[in-house]
Amino acid sequence: MTEVAVVGAGLMGHALALVFALGGHRVRLTDTNPDMLARAPALMATALATLVEAGEAASDQDRQWLSTAVRCIPTLEEAVPSAALVIEAVVERPEVKRTLYAQLETLMAKDAILASNTSNLDIFPLVPAALQRRTIIAHWYTPPYLCDLVDLCPGPETDPAAVTTVRDMVAAMGKVPVVFKQMVQGYVANRLQAAMQLEVCRLLDEGLVTPKDIDDSVIHGLALRMPILGIMAKADFTGLLLMQQGLKNRSYTPPEPRGKSETLDRLIADGRTGVMAGKGYFDWGDQTPEALFQERDRRLLALKQALRKIGPMEGT
Ligand SMILES: NC(=O)c1ccc[n+]([C@@H]2O[C@H](COP(=O)([O-])OP(=O)(O)OC[C@H]3O[C@@H](n4cnc5c(N)ncnc54)[C@H](O)[C@@H]3O)[C@@H](O)[C@H]2O)c1
Asked: Which of 6, 12, 96, 142 is the best mutation target for the ligand 1 pocket, counting ligand atoms within 8 Å of the beta carbon and taking the most?
């Protein structure tokens, strides 16, 4: 059992606290926003209840167990010094992360490891020199108690032993670490997702399709094969000759990154920021985020359990 501090109790932080608690570790969760910290126990409890219901967590892992396994701590000063691993899950803004890392340098135990959950940032230039050897990126996917992939990237000065420690810890929790040799901005999954986001934003900005058209195309076509074949094995099944011809025949120019989307900007200006706000591309009615997450989790769990029985193609 390791003492883990999770800094940032938002969408990812509360869920990561739950993951590490389920992995047998003692967790201290903290956030500068008291409202976010106050919201975390209910979000974790709902997710945990869904896991118990599906047989993915033990029946005695109830609210009481959770309140001992994850302690919500109001200040960084109380949350961090006893931790051997500090997970950083604060907002994706370089200046916020830089300030936090400077605070962590003075608060973290001598040998403690700092693991950032950043999605896109090369955080290493933001980290004080004294922490460089003990800093790693450990990037999870939401919801991390259901998505098993964890991207691990060392920085230029990261001690290989820190990578091994985090890799082994993550693997022992039943997760699937992919260890990169160096910082690969966007990793693999987020790069592929970013390429899709460019297409999605352009299709919507040009008014060619609706959000539902996009999700119908993904859910009923693109994504169906992915859990079994991934992308590379799917290419083998399609035939590489067709892939080669497809490259030659391409009849439209893929979008260049423009750094913005009018549709996205308009939605955000209208307060439509996603499930936490009750609306985004879709209207989610007056259901609470807890209820929506639970519905999503139940469906993902059913899929995950079915896929576990089916398995990927042999030989990949
Ligand atoms: N949302 C995702 O699907 C996802 C997936 C993988 C990785 N990430 C990464 O995880 C990190 C957090 O993302 P999120 O979606 O959970 O964001 P979020 O906005 O839901 O939560 C961030 C939290 O950090 C808190 N915070 C800000 N400054 C802080 C500080 N100095 N100390 C403590 N808490 C502070 C905020 O109050 C907020 O509660 C980002 O780096 C993001 O790129 C997000």
From this structure: 12
Q: What is the mean pLDDT of residues 230-243?
A: 92
Burial of 247 (0-12, 13-18, 19+ CB in 10 A): exposed
**How far out from the chain centre does Cα 218 lie?**
20
Q: Does 119 sit in the ligand 1 pocket, CB within 6 Å?
A: yes
Tens digits of residue pLDDT in 70-118: 999 999 999 999 999 999 999 999 999 999 999 999 999 999 999 999 9
CATH 2.60.120.810 holds for 190-310: no
- Residue located nearest, by CA, to atom 8 of ligand 1: 119
- Number of neighbouring beta carbons within 10 Å of residue 58: 11
**Per-residue confidence band for 254, with pLDDT thresholds at 50, 70 and 90:** confident
Enumerate the CATH 3.40.50.720 domain ranges in the chain, comma separated.
3-179
Give the tokens for residue 60. 């005695």
Q: Report the nearest atom of ligand 1 relative to the CA of 36.
A: 39
Q: Work out the angle between the directed axes of helices 34-53 and 11-22 (0-180°, nearest 10).
A: 50
- Looking at the chain, the domain(s) classified CATH 1.10.1040.10 span 190-310
Fold of 3-179: Rossmann fold (3.40.50)
Whether 100 is in the pocket of ligand 1, judged by its Cβ within 6 Å, is: yes
